[in-house]
Amino acid sequence: MRVSISVVKWFTKIPSWAALSLVMNGLLFTTVLAVSQEATVQADQLLADGGAMAVAADGDDPSVIDAAIADNVVELPHPSGGRKLSYQDWIEVLSSDAKAAASKNPEHLTVLLGDSLSLWVPGELMPGRRVWINQSISGEKTQGLLNRLELLDDNEVEAVFIMIGINDLIWGKADDEI
């Protein structure tokens, strides 16, 4: 009981933006784990039902393997390829990635949107059975993200994970403005 009281006291002493960041990171992590767990359960059911054999038996291309039943981890690509980019360079790279995804029109397209917290999410934590594109920019603020949402207009997006606002708070923007 003492431990939980001391944790609550500690939590109330930290700045509101830091508490918000901790809570949002926890929610994002929990959501990714929940989606991952669901994909794992579905993959286990598919394998139990002989789903892996059905790909070749149905005459589909046997070289196409669902990420959830593949033996290796499908990594989330890093948009910049490790290069240091200006904000405008980032916009161009992300626009190109969004156009490439739209031209392929993949099923289960899932987008990460946000700042550096989203940009550096490890690909090995991303669940399979989805095609992931990362549309995050380090240092991004809420208005910048809102201004570039049109980059995804041509995509058939199934799900979006958003983590934004911490940079606004760091630069002194009020909670109600964000």
Task: Explain how this protein is built.
This protein has 178 residues and is mainly α. It has one domain (2-170). The chain has seven helices and three strands. It has helices at 2-13, 16-48, 51-57, 87-104, 116-119, 142-147, 166-170, and strands at residues 109-114, 131-136, 157-163. Strands 2-1-3 form a three-stranded parallel sheet, with helices on both faces. The longest helix is centred in the first third of the chain and has 33 residues, at 16-48. The protein is globular, with a radius of gyration of 19 Å. The two termini are 36 Å apart. The relative contact order is 0.15.
Which SSEs are present, and which pair or pack?
Layout: H1 2-13, H2 16-48, H3 51-57, H4 87-104, E1 109-114, H5 116-119, E2 131-136, H6 142-147, E3 157-163, H7 166-170
Parallel strand pairs: 1-2, 1-3
Task: Give a short synopsis of this structure.
By secondary structure, the protein is mainly alpha-helical. It has 7 helices and 3 strands; from the N terminus they run ααααβαβαβα.
Give the N-to-C terminal Cα separation: 36 Å
Overall average residue pLDDT: 74
Strand order of the largest sheet: 2-1-3
**Class inferred from helices and paired strands:** mainly alpha
Question: What portion of residues is helical?
Answer: 40-55%
Jot down its keywords:
single chain, 178 residues, mainly alpha, three-stranded parallel sheet, 11% strand, globular
